[in-house]
Amino acid sequence: MTEKIIEFICPQSKLLVEINQHSNYIHFMNYSFEYIDIILLAMIAGFIFLRLRGILGKRTGFEGKPPQNFQDVIKKINKVNQPIDLSKKFDDEAQIEFIKGAKIAYETIITDFSDNDNKIIASKPLLNNKILNQFNEALKERSKRGHYAEITFIGVNSAKIKEHKKIGKILNVTVDFIAEIITCIKDKDKKIVSGDPEKVKKIYDTWVFSRDTTSTNPNWQLVDILT
After folding, report:
1. What is the Cα–Cα distance from 36 to 41, expressed in whole angstroms?
2. pLDDT category, 79, cuts 50, 70, 90?
3. Cβ atoms within 10 Å, residue 172
4. How far is CA 160 from CA 28, 46, 97, 157, in A?
5. Is 206 helix (H, G, I), strand (E, B) or coil?
6. How high is the pLDDT of residue 91?
7. Phi/psi-derived region of residue 96, left when phi > 0, alpha when psi is between -120 and 50, beta in every other case
8. In a domain? residue 160
9. What are φ and ψ of residue 127, in 5° steps?
10. Is the separation of the CB atoms in 223 and 128 below 8 Å?
11. pLDDT tens-place string over residues 116-139
């Protein structure tokens, strides 16, 4: 009976109690959600860390120290780049390096002689005086006739050392070349005199290169054309 009288006389007090209880519940729930947010953020941060670690890798003993196979590669490159003393040997290694340079020299000389300016420019250091004079005479005759050449160098199919012979301090190396080019000669009116600007032509040459083995100059020179 007393409980009902209290409710009747002061119903607000019961409402306040219920409100306070409800507020405490909400307050408790807010704390719970805050804890859940922290846990979720921690889980997300952990996931991101693991992803970055998987993508970027983890720190190992490699930092600042290249692996052994990398060191071996560097040694081989340095060994190839070291000048070869031709006064003592012209072995397989030296011949491989020589052929690489001979192919470049061959293309440079062929295109320089066969271009449309009728001048020897790019290949001049690669020719001895005899060959240079022969080329210049041929180009003068071409210019007198009012002719000029057009060339497209396709590539060297093969370059093989036929023989190498050392006479005193001079080493001569004979090379057989097989290459493909497109070339023709035109007159001043651009009419084709010889050759075919649409046809690939295979050419065969045997050239002799020479070098003073005691010289510090690494360049070889073309000293003779056999075919």
Report:
1. 9
2. very low
3. 16
4. 90, 64, 12, 10
5. strand
6. 87
7. alpha
8. yes
9. -115, 140
10. yes
11. 888 899 899 999 999 999 999 999
From 117, 70, 125, 119, select the one nearest 101 (Cα to Cα). 125
The domain containing residue 22 runs over which residues? 2-54
CA 181 to chain centre: 26
- Residue 146, helix vs strand vs coil: coil
Please state the length of the chain.
227
CB 117 within 8 A of CB 150: no
Q: Can you read off the two tokens belonging to residue 20?
A: 């306070």
Contacts with 137 (C-beta within 8 Å, 6 or more apart), sequence order: none
Residues 44 and 125 in one domain: no
End-to-end CA distance of the chain: give it in Å, rounded.
135
201 falls within a domain: yes
CB 7 within 8 A of CB 14: yes
Entry pTM: 0.61
Q: For residue 71, tell me if it sits in a domain.
A: no
CATH number at residue 142: 3.10.450.240
